[in-house]
Specification:
alpha/beta, oxidoreductase (chains A, B), Isopropylmalate Dehydrogenase, metal-binding (chains A, B), IsoCit/isopropylmalate_DH_CS (chains A, B), two-stranded antiparallel ribbon, cytoplasm (chains A, B), homodimer, IsoPropMal-DH-like_dom (chains A, B), about 40% helix, binds 3-isopropylmalic acid
């Protein structure tokens, strides 16, 4: 059995609990041995040491094959935790340093999951789409500034930076994913009627790359129109490709309509494989229920499946997927502990 | 009876039909006489003359007391109509030239309207909130550019520009609206954890202005969290204040969850009253059903009510509102023509 080096960042709150279950399932499913290195990054370490992501730790992580992250974030409004410090100093820093240009977020309405949408909307068709969100450009580049701060004359700017290089690689990745799916449909989402510069670039590159994928159907929607379709007919979507901020917004709505972020998995992927990719549940650290074995580890477990898929272990990934599906279909109403859910899914995978 | 000078821009597609009904109801309801001047702006005029918004027309419109707009926009993919030309050259141009810094979009789930949300979500409480979207700053200022266009080295930028002046006036307007509502609650929406410069400005000014409105409860949500709440518990919102692009995104989702943009009214308001404000339904020109008396004029009629409210005719505005509510509650399943709906609502207002 070959060995895969896995960086594990359990994080804060419920992070360690759900990560433990994801690892439990990964170990049963994977055809490789994971050599784990744990990194205690997150709110706790910051509060204890003032460190968010030391350069030496980043250098070590860069040498791993993949990263599994639980969730980071301290107690809401902790005066010792400056707002945004973990988001920018850790989560976004990893995305940028490891060039995670594909932020992958599958959205499926799982059996047994409760959607906030009406039966009439759900009857329109199955909800099963993937959002390919660009992860290294746009409004997330920190290209902003402010002058006369705190005065009545303050001006504050945020610049969305988009490059042909950056757009093309993520659009190509999205086309390849669309081509591999039964419906082979790609929807570009932007706001070309207002953001003419960035919009033209995204539009033009999508048209260009489309020529390499003649079997993929392409359409375009403004971000505001996407809101309407996600609420009234989400079955129309197959693969969505969009920029960093629109992707952030779309994926939370997508998670909500498919039963909540408790089930949403995600991958921060460097498709060119120069750096390790990172997989994490979309949910946060939920400090209010931490340590009580109340958290649902399903999103973390599904993130493990995305990790296996990325590493090329397609059968193992499919086995986790199937086990989660079966578990969800048969979930009763009596609550299980975090590790009971992990055990049940691991048992199905071992099956 | 005093006279109010009203610019009427019926526009394209179903615009003229719904505008006719809005005027019909306005004339019955208003305690003033409207002196109407019609402007044939829109796709048709552009296609015939190449003109979008001539300076002389703009100058005339600036002298009016208020503007009622139907909808503008030609046939989809008309090769003679460059994409975005009417949006930027007419709609956004009017917002900027007339300093419409308050883009007001009420969202109510009307009786008889069909929401795409499940009964379980609707049972959480009444959906009745207002979005105050900033209309003259942010990503809509056209502060972007591109270099090496069309090459693999293209860089395209879009800059969100936010000023203390611009943020403060719209935030203050939103607080005043919150104070006038029973729940007196204001939610600031931004993405402060990523957009630190603009986010700090919005946050700081909201805290400052809050001191003038001690009876208003203030909270804050990231734009992505708003997506989740709009899908799972929209009753939590009362007044939302946010920037131009987030407001664009939120209001389309808000319209969708309250039964569709067929009922959504909006005002582009210059609260300082230096320029006339403009009122319009949120829907587009729907060229596919134009001229067939199939369009629902309700959103245009409700936009007329917002116009009256802005001009200070609160009772007349409330009368239209009540008439629309009654009409919606008693709508059967047999379709009525556009003018039948207008007649019915006008009769209730008169009655
Ligand atoms: C925590 C935050 C910086 C992050 C983002 O905006 O990308 C989160 O919302 C996400 O979607 O992963
Ligand atoms: C047509 C477009 C420019 C406009 C906007 O983005 O503001 C529209 O979507 C709206 O919400 O009024």
């Amino acid at each position: 059995m070959s060995t895969t080096n896995l960086a594990v960042i359990p994080g804060d709150g419920i992070g360690p609990e759900v990560t433990a279950e994801a690892l439990k399932v990964l170990e049963v499913a994977a055809p490789v041995k994971f050599e784990q290195t744990r990194y205690d990054l997150g709110a706790e370490r910051y509060l204890a040491t003032g460190e968010v992501l030391p350069e030496s730790v980043l250098a070590e992580i860069k040498e791993q094959d993949a990263i599994l992250l639980g969730a980071v974030g301290g107690k809401p409004n902790d005066p010792n935790l400056p707002p945004g410090i973990l988001e920018r100093g850790l989560l976004l820093k990893l995305r940028f340093e490891l060039d995670h240009y594909v932020n992958l977020r599958p959205s499926r309405l799982f059996p047994g999951a409760t959607s906030p949408l009406s039966q009439a909307v759900l009857d329109k068709g199955e909800i099963d789409f993937v959002v390919v969100r660009e992860g290294t450009e746009g409004l997330y580049t920190g290209n902003g500034g402010a002058m006369r701060v705190g005065t009545p004359h303050e001006v504050a700017t945020e610049t969305s930076v988009n490059t042909a290089y950056g757009v093309e690689r993520v659009v190509r990745d999205a086309f390849a994913r669309a081509q591999a799916r039964p419906r082979k449909k790609l929807t570009l989402v932007h706001k070309t009627n207002v953001l003419v510069n960035a919009g033209s670039l995204w539009w033009r590159i999508t048209q260009q790359v489309a020529e390499e994928f003649p079997d993929v159907t392409v359409d375009y929607l403004h971000i505001d129109a996407v809101m309407i379709f996600l609420a009234t007919d989400p079955s129309r979507f197959d693969v969505i490709v969009t920029d960093n901020i629109f992707g952030d917004i779309i994926t939370d709505l997508a998670a909500a309509i498919t039963g909540g972020i408790g089930l949403a998995a995600s991958g921060n992927i460097n498709s060119s494989r120069e750096f390790p990719s990172m997989f994490e549940p979309v949910h946060g650290s939920a400090p209010d229920i931490a340590g009580q074995q109340k958290a649902d580890p399903t999103a973390a477990i599904l993130s493990g499946a995305l990790l296996l898929e990325h590493l090329g272990h397609l059968e193992a990934a499919a086995a986790i997927d199937a086990a989660v599906l079966a578990d969800l279909s048969e979930r009763g109403t009596s609550p299980r502990t975090t590790s009971e859910v992990g055990d049940a899914i691991a048992a199905r995978v071992a099956g």
